[in-house]
From TrEMBL:
Annotated Acidic residues bias: 94-104
Coiled coil: none
Protein family per UniProt: Belongs to the SNF7 family.
Name of this chain's protein: Charged multivesicular body protein 3
Database matches in Gene3D superfamilies: 6.10.140.1230
Superkingdom of origin organism: Eukaryota
One BP term from GO: vacuolar transport
InterPro entries in alphabetical order: Snf7_fam (IPR005024)
Length: 114
């Protein structure tokens, strides 16, 4: 008779061995599933790059159609720089403002020193 009045069907050592085997089997199944998930993820990442290139080609085709071919004549990259022009009188005004600011800062500095 067992501890609680009932005899076990199997010995505890056999039960532990059986449970260990079942756990190992489940671990292998889970490991296999995880590997498959990783493979699917990496494959989809590679497909994403191909899809991005295909999408860019489609956008270029549509823009070419909309602009009636003018887009194909345009350079792929603009290398010209715009000339820097200041409106007349802007340089003189900025020089006057900068002189006033310098004088104001010098007076503040003198006040702090005293």
């Amino acid at each position: 008779m067992g501890l609680f009045g009932r005899t076990p069907d199997k010995a505890p050592k056999e039960m532990v061995n059986e449970w260990s085997g079942k756990i190992r089997k489940e671990m292998r199944v889970i490991d296999r599933q995880i590997r498959e998930m990783l493979e699917d993820t990496f494959e989809s990442m590679e497909d994403g790059e191909d899809m991005e290139e295909a999408a860019e080609e489609e956008v270029d085709k549509i823009l070419f159609e909309i602009t009636a071919g003018a887009l194909g004549k345009a350079p792929s990259k603009v290398t010209d720089e715009l000339p820097e022009t200041e409106p007349p009188g802007a340089a003189a005004a900025s020089e006057d403002e900068s002189e006033e600011e310098i004088e104001e800062m010098q007076s503040r500095l003198a006040a702090l020193r005293s």
